[in-house]
Amino acid sequence: MKSIKDIDPPFATSPSRRAEWREYNNVDPSFLDDLNSRDSGFDSQTGCDPFTHAQGTVWELVPRDVRKKMFPHQREGFEFIWKNIAGGIDLDELKNSTSTGGGNGCIISHAPGTGKTGLTLVFLQAYMKLHPRCRPVIIAPRSMLLTWEEEFKKWGIDIPFYNLNKPELSGKENNGAVALMDNRKRGRGKVGLIRYVKLYSWKMGTGILGLSYRLFEKLVSGDELSGILLDLPGLFVFDEGHTPRNDDTCMFKALSRIKTRRRIILSGTPFQNNFQELENTLSLVRQEFGEVLRTVRKSGREISKAKHASLISSIGRCANHRDDEKLKELKEKIAPFVNVHKGTVLQESLPGLRHSVVILQPDEFQKRLCKAVEGVKSFVELNYCVSLLSVHPSLLPQQFFESFDVDSAKLARLKLDPEAGIKTRFLLILLELSTNEKVLVFSQYIEPLTLIMEQLRHRFNWREGQEVLYMDGKQDVKKRQSSINVLNDPSSQARIMLASTKACCEGINLVGASRVVLLDVVWNPFVERQAISRAYRLGQKRVVHVYHLITSETLEWDKLRRQARKVWWSNMVFPSSDGGGNDQTTASEPLEDKILEEMAQLYNNPSETLINAIIPQPKETELIETFGEFLNKSS
User: Fold this and answer.
1) Are 376 and 385 in contact (CB under 8 A)?
2) 54: buried, middle or exposed (CB in 10 Å: 19+, 13-18, 0-12)?
3) Given this chain, do its domains 45-159+206-287 and 344-634 carry the same CATH topology?
4) Span 146-171, pLDDT tens digits
5) I need a labelling partner for 603 at 20 to 30 A (CA). Which of 2, 48, 101, 500 fits?
6) How confident is the model at residue 305 (pLDDT cuts 50, 70, 90)?
7) Can you list the alpha helix ranges (DSSP code H) found in 319-464?
8) Given a cut of 70, is residue 438 above it in pLDDT?
């Protein structure tokens, strides 16, 4: 077994890697020796024997007040996790089980915003009463780790949580290890010392370790760490478990080396782009499933190694047949370890959700630019240019000025004029009409967000941090949380938040906004679903209106077709255990959007056309059918 002094990271792989580990490189080796001398030699399973006095079912391990707070789908999920991870819910049977063997992984696919984090914490607290030293590890996107900390407080979980990505101590670390650290040098290497103390405290105590996917990948990149982060944990939780879905990445390969089979994936959207990615996600919780499904690449194409791989690869070809037997076979195979809740709790608890696909009509200049970029040979560049130009013409990348014969001076003059771009114009009008609501704007690119911020500053003299809030993936975590708090504060001056789609992962709560604008169309519809669920989630007090903005006659049309197909695939593979509903379904009664109706009336006349068409989406299935019908007519 590896001791605490054996957790030195690998420095010698490359200069860049050595730079990444500079904090560790400056840790005094004698500190590790002293820390190791305190190690009492517990192995990965010592102290994991279950309670002997507990009786009844696992619900006896959950405080009564916590049980009352749980929704029906959370209670179902709680038992589902126990049956997969431990083998059942009867305490007498669990007492006789061993913590070293058995156990399997599972996927909790509950709609975003329905309390997966809280459910998981209730399970972990109960599980650790039986197995107090099972050493759970939670791996999540970096920004989500702070959300986990908040959920620990919300649910009254008194288990220490050691966030390795956080440069400060939690206050619950091992006192002896902290004392040793305090006697060492400060400054360079301090972050590394703190991480060592957290690892030691987690190893020797009864706490939970948390770290980001990227940090986990880096920490296990050498053999020295195999005995700590790969072998010691008795349970892993992968939050947003669809994140490491590419089996060619170092991240996926690192996670595949984990020893324990007890793994829980939390994901409201496990199906992302295609069935190959789904296969990889499934293999993280059921290794034998992945081994059977694994394919090899030969001559640039995939060759199936087994019948299950053939099953996966064939679904995409025949997904138009609703009664497809192969799809049915796949659903039967994954049903025992995938628990699905589509979000009926949101329909029952929240005022409502209304989707509207808004087809916008650009002026001749913007239309000409959008048409010109269709000649771009690189598909990546084409997608990028269309997404930017559909928002505002001044966003045309400079390298295309000459080839498109564009007047750069004209673009510069138009830059601060939101009415020169069809989507910025729509947003401006929406802000003027929705004075009593906050607006949340998402884009997959930073350029449109920064442009809109400049335009709002120029037009209304709005200030960042007050009327305008901003969030992207590179933003400091504390600053991001501050912006979230301001948006959700009913008394704040905030009118709009401009957010990167990728920065708003599961768990981020933006219920202060009730108007959601999707500025561009992404290929993956579940990225949009995650974004919408930042506002449409438990705690929302208003009807949420979502605007999918589409610039007429552009590549965005094709994206809609692809989105509809992927959503259909996902719904077929992951039917809800509650018998219906989906995570972004509207209320049973049609919801009005008086602001959108007013926009259509005021700005559609013989002299100008803002909105070409509005496609309401009362239900997701109708959404798909409406897309297909409307787009086919328009093609």
Assistant:
1) yes
2) middle
3) yes
4) 889 989 998 889 999 999 999 899 99
5) 500
6) very low
7) 325-334, 344-349, 364-372, 379-389, 408-414, 422-433, 446-460
8) yes
The predicted structure's pLDDT at residue 546: 95
Half-sphere exposure of 114 (CA within 13 A, CB side): 27
How far is it, in rounded angstroms, from Cα 385 to Cα 546?
24
- Confirm if 238 and 264 have CB atoms less than 8 A apart: yes
d(CA 587, CA 423): 28
Strand bridging mode 544-551 / 515-518: parallel
3-class DSSP state for residue 58? helix
Better-scored residue on pLDDT, 282 or 426: 426
Residue 180: per-residue pLDDT: 84
Distance CA 306, CA 294 (A): 8
The CA–CA distances, whole Å, from 610 to 246, 337, 520, 613 equal 41, 48, 17, 9
295-298 and 301-304: which strand pairing? antiparallel
Question: 613 in helix, strand or coil?
Answer: strand
Which CATH number is correct for 344-634, 3.90.870.10, 3.40.50.10140, 3.40.50.300, 3.90.45.10?
3.40.50.300
The first and second tokens of residue 626, run together, are: 């409406």
Q: Where are the domains of the chain?
A: 45-159+206-287, 344-634
Residue with the two structure tokens 């001398």: 37
Q: Are 22 and 183 in contact (CB under 8 A)?
A: no
Amino acid identity for residue 354 in this structure: R
Q: What is the CA radius of gyration of the chain?
A: 26
Tokens of 522: 């992404």
More confident residue, 524 or 123: 123
Read off the DSSP letter of residue 294. Answer: -
In CATH, what class is 45-159+206-287? alpha beta
Pair 159, 208: CB distance under 8 Å = yes
pLDDT score recorded for residue 473: 80
| Cα-based torsion angle of the residue sequence 271, 277, 280, 282 in order, rounded to the nearest 10 degrees | 10
Burial status of residue 592 (CB atoms within 10 A of its CB: 0-12, 13-18, 19 or more): exposed
Which residues, 6 or more positions from 302, have their beta carbon under 8 angstroms from its beta carbon? Answer: 276, 295, 296, 309, 313
pLDDT tens digits along 99-127: 444 578 999 999 888 899 999 999 999 99
Residue 42 has what DSSP assignment?
A: -
